[in-house]
Amino acid sequence: MDATIALRLPRDAASVPLIRRMFDGTLRSLGVVPQVRDDIELMLTEACANVVRHAEPSDDYTVTAGVHDDLCVIRVVDTGSGFDPRLVRTPAPGEESGRGLVIMRALADDVRFISRREHGVVVALEKRLRFEPGAAGLALGGGNGRRASPSGP
């Protein structure tokens, strides 16, 4: 099974719930368990919110979110000025902002930040999917133990 949503979105806060709802609807239709859907929703929200807040001078960004057998692959690409994720400080406990990278790293099975100096950032997130019994995703080939080979960043 291979299902992908790809959108080019304005760098605007209103774009974040749009892609989040669209992809959650896809995962729900496939029968992905709620806990995994919640993790993916939060990872996707953090990646997109970071673009909206920090990816200047970019006017838009691209989100590709796909299901490849039992693997969810998300790529959020902006054309901002880039950053070095190793230099981002860890927020203090209770701090309201600056937690996005920590959250993505905690929830994703694999996370990569590819900074292209003066050409933006690619955030690549992967999460293994689990399906409800009898889910459409299982009938379509998800959860079969095969690892897909989606194209990398």
Automatic annotation (TrEMBL):
It comes from the Bacteria. Keywords: ATP-binding, Kinase, Nucleotide-binding, Serine/threonine-protein kinase, Transferase. This is ATP-binding protein. The lineage of its organism: Bacteria, Bacillati, Actinomycetota, Actinomycetes, Streptosporangiales. It comes from Nonomuraea typhae. One of its GO terms (molecular function) is ATP binding. Transmembrane segments: none annotated. Residues 10-125 form the Histidine kinase/HSP90-like ATPase domain. PANTHER family: ANTI-SIGMA-F FACTOR RSBW (PTHR35526:SF3), ANTI-SIGMA-F FACTOR RSBW-RELATED (PTHR35526). SUPFAM superfamilies: ATPase domain of HSP90 chaperone/DNA topoisomerase II/histidine kinase.
